[in-house]
Amino acid sequence: MSDATQLSCSLTEPDGAPPASGWPAVMLFHGLGGRHQDMEPLATQFLAPAGYAALACDARGHGASGGLFGLDGPRDVLDTKELYAWLTARPEISDTQIAALGISLGGGAVWNAAVAGVPFKAIVPVITWTNLTTALAPQGLSKSGLVQLLASYVPQTRWDPDLLAAAGSLVTSTNMGTVAALASTRSPLSHLSTLTTPTLLIQGRRDFLFDVDQALAAYRLLKGPKRLYLGDLGHAPGISPATAPDAAIYWGEAVKWFDRYVKGAPATLPPSVIELGHDPYDGKTTTFKALPATKTISVALPGSTAMSGTTGKVVRSVRVTGGPHETFGDSTVTVSYSGATNWDHLVAVLAISGNPSPISAGGVKLNGASGTATIKLMDEAVRIPAGKKLVLYLGSTSLAQSPANALYLSAVQPGAEITIGRATLKLSVLTKAVSK
After folding, report:
1. Which of 140, 150, 197, 254 is 20 to 30 A away from residue 51, measured at CA?
2. What pTM, to 2 d.p., does this model score?
3. Are the C-beta atoms of residues 203 and 210 closer than 8 Å to each other?
């Protein structure tokens, strides 16, 4: 790179002689803690057979590359610009027919490079963010357990100074101005209304790191050709994009997207469509020409329960009539509380009775010793079988639901107290469930 840092890369090319204009190519970007070899199966199994070269590199601070990890910061964007120039300068590669696909951290790299002006013909961001602040610390409360897990993927000795300076604040949900400043230069959302690059978004139905809203926010803003696939892939509790049951579907759609907007082939994949893979995946999807219609189910969860200490919790349950239901959109839990002493935040986890994997979760900072708090639950697309009981867990951490739920781990102080009163669950669901 221009600062003398070396990046470890691989270039995969199709068999045979390149066309006169050079091979069209796709730049591939791996996830956090990954390396370029993670992307090579995509290059060899899907892209090369379709006539695309593929360049994949270890990001800074990853694998065999030098430099410091910057979480898709300005230096990483400059790396992408320089890699684009290096790739298009090769005689067997097209000067202009270049696309990009990235997963998770790599999806952020694709978004940020695209809004910075890298002239990709088409992009495919996969299970990633568009607003890093709302992804990692919705409502000002950090997903501290998840953040700490992510931080462990890259040794801190390989982090850049800006990232190191914000790390402590993000875990503790303090000095969030530092976090916001870091996130703003790595969040493409505010620029997407001017982006016309044809974009296929691939996002997970159930992803507690980057929920459905991260992709929907982009889909609403994009002005060029766009398509959104929601499937069974994702960060936990989703399945790795490489092994998800519908992987062949969305990787195949990515190739078709590139064929149309990179090679200029006739359209075989209509744009302006939201496609929802069924869960569990049955080989079928349901498509919508606009945002899927939803309705709100509102249920009251009365009671008054005192909590104290770091392990205190409140559990309320209700059996929702009708069904099956399928969550989609923004659900909320509104809670009245009083007597809060050293209890500064509240976490909610919604689950199906008997199912250890939650439907969704959220958390919020409290304002004062008493009042009403509205907790926004992450937008997850989950099927709720008819007749099943829903269980709402409230506490200072997500451990209130299960010892295995390490999403929110920053507990209140020992001896903290609060009384939880009436709670109201407003559950956003599809007007008609599509999963069987």
Report:
1. 197
2. 0.97
3. yes
